[in-house]
Design a protein that fits this description.
2 copies of one chain form a homodimer. Chain A has 338 residues and is of the alpha+beta class. Chain A is built from 11 helices and 13 strands. In chain A, the strands form 2 sheets. A 7-stranded mixed beta sheet of chain A has the order 8-10-7-11-9-12-13, with helices on both faces. A 6-stranded mixed beta sheet of chain A has the order 1-2-3-6-4-5. In chain A, helix 3 links the parallel strand 4 and strand 5. In chain A, helix 2 packs parallel to helix 3.
Chain lengths: 338, 338
């Protein structure tokens, strides 16, 4: 039997491909496997670099997002990767594949959204490529540099560290679920109207650049952006750091409206908030001694303590002292490979 | 009528999209529109950055190239963009889209080819992304730095400058034409056997990094890599520099076997050598006073003088004193938008 890409899953595949590359060369400070890589250039400057590929029908659906939303998000998810290292994004390259029949106005709107995101975060788009393709492809690479603190990797978490997240979670997954149903489900359509920030969380995520810089300067020991869902992303930190974690379900901050959407969907609110991806908030491990400074720097309203790093390797989600499995929350509907 | 992406053509589209981006921000030394961009990072280091998107069915055809060839080429074309600025490539990001049913071995071979190219030119692959897609997508971004000379843009050519190219031209286009016919045309198959470097020129182009660095140090005034075909790429230099050019047809160096392939195809050899793209040799404008040093640095056998930069804006191809149009050479068969 031939082993297929789909048999390995995204992370298995990445691992196998990275293994083909052998040892990193000179100047590689942080190699493949983190949110961004860090490299040293001549003259001693360190650059952070990252790339993300967004595909129509996989990462976005025309009809649920406007072209300008797609442009915004394609850049924002890359800026979020730089934020997760405690870095400052500076420059972007954008490669665009599009069917020849695509209206030029659609591509111009996509670029306008991209430019809006770039300007919002002080980033210059300096180049890229275009090609004809069957469906829209937006491939972005970003170059940044460290903020005024150290580079924070996934690898530094230690047992006893506090786990924190910025903002509120579940909005993007809830927004996407509603948008997919709104055309044929009146309750979903009403919830889209009532909680407009949910659709916005899916369409126009806000990279937490200021918060990432503050976390690095305050002494966060490990950091990641929440793209695969909180539980999985905390799992990535734990795997990279060689530790486990206990997450406290009742402390996970829920985006406004999540309880209503969970009621509509017939799942637990945590299915969205711990299992749903694409939030682009930051999750971080913080030594207890650094916590006060971090809360001052980020602002206590934007930072929630959600658990603790432990010995071992298990990542546990608990509520009212009961351990929960993501599957039991209905997580399969919202997470996964997209 | 709705204006479509295809109505604008690749260059028209890029121009319109760049126009959406407004003025470049702080730290942008060379913005969009050249082979690579140049940006300044904190600490004063200058980085060269470029990205290219390679799509199955557009830039490569499975069956004509092995997966490892595709990997090699996806990186090589990006390294060539850095070479065309006189730069040294250092780090690469690779985003890979593939159908879920793709054998894992295919993707591993693609990565092995990519790694082979990276090692050959001292480049480290430091990250990227994977996603499921309808067809293979290889999106690469490269970060480099200036060599030991200035950054050479497309904009610096002056009337009186000599036009030079590295290597020999037409091999990639001739190789592709043969490979496309070899399965059903015995003469084509025989030519593939007889001139193996033609297929190799299509499958595994060699970026001219050493030559680009030497050209920058020797004082080349403008440089570009030959991806769109010599005539068009000289046209890009002329447009960016505000000048014209006269190319001497008999001085354009032909890859070995081109005359035979042109005979088989029923076109002029220059259709491949001046019209065919994908060669990834370097074309440069050189002030006459700098020519001797450049010939010494690159080696006279690898450098051909093919014409001169002129006043005005016309790019003319002449042979035996007669002006030629690319169309009349059969160029349409081999150039174009691919």
């Amino acid at each position: 039997m031939t082993l297929k890409a789909s048999d390995l899953g995204e992370f298995g595949l990445i691992e196998r491909l990275i293994a083909r590359l052998g040892t990193p060369g000179e100047g590689v400070v942080v190699g493949p496997g983190d949110d961004a890589a860090a490299v040293r250039l001549g003259g001693g400057a360190t650059a952070l670099v990252t790339a993300d590929l967004l595909l129509e029908g996989v990462h976005f659906e025309i009809g649920l997002s406007s072209p300008s939303d797609v442009g915004w998000k394609a850049l924002a998810v890359n800026l979020s990767d730089i934020a997760a290292m405690g870095g400052v994004p500076r420059f972007a390259l954008v490669s665009l594949g599009s069917p020849p029949a695509t209206p030029a106005a659609t591509l111009e709107q996509l670029y306008a959204g991209l430019d809006e995101c770039a300007r919002s975060f002080g980033v210059s788009v300096v180049g890229g490529d275009t090609a004809k393709a069957d469906r829209l492809i937006v491939s972005v690479a970003v170059v940044g540099e460290p903020g005024n603190g150290p580079i924070v990797q996934r690898t530094g978490a230690l047992p006893g560290d506090v786990l924190c997240v910025t903002g509120a979670l579940g909005g993007a997954a809830a927004g996407l679920a509603l948008l997919r149903s709104a055309s044929h489900d009146e309750r979903a359509a009403a919830l889209v109207e009532r909680f407009p920030l949910l659709a916005k969380a899916h369409r126009r995520p806000v990279p937490r650049i200021r918060e990432g810089i503050a976390a690095a300067r305050s002494g966060a020991s490990a950091m990641i952006d929440i793209s695969d869902g909180l539980a999985r992303d905390i799992g990535h930190i734990c795997e990279a750091s060689g530790c486990g974690a206990v997450l406290s379900g009742e402390k996970i901050p829920l985006a406004e409206g999540i309880d209503d959407v969970a009621g509509w969907a017939g799942v637990d609110s945590l299915a969205f908030a711990a299992g749903g991806g694409d939030d682009y908030e930051l999750a971080m491990a913080v030594p207890p001694a650094a916590l006060e400074e971090l809360r001052r720097a980020i602002g206590p309203a934007s930072l929630a303590i959600i658990g603790e790093v432990t010995e071992g390797s298990d990542v546990t989600l608990e509520r009212d002292g009961v351990r929960m499995e993501l599957d039991s929350l209905g997580w399969d509907h919202f997470g996964g490979d997209t």
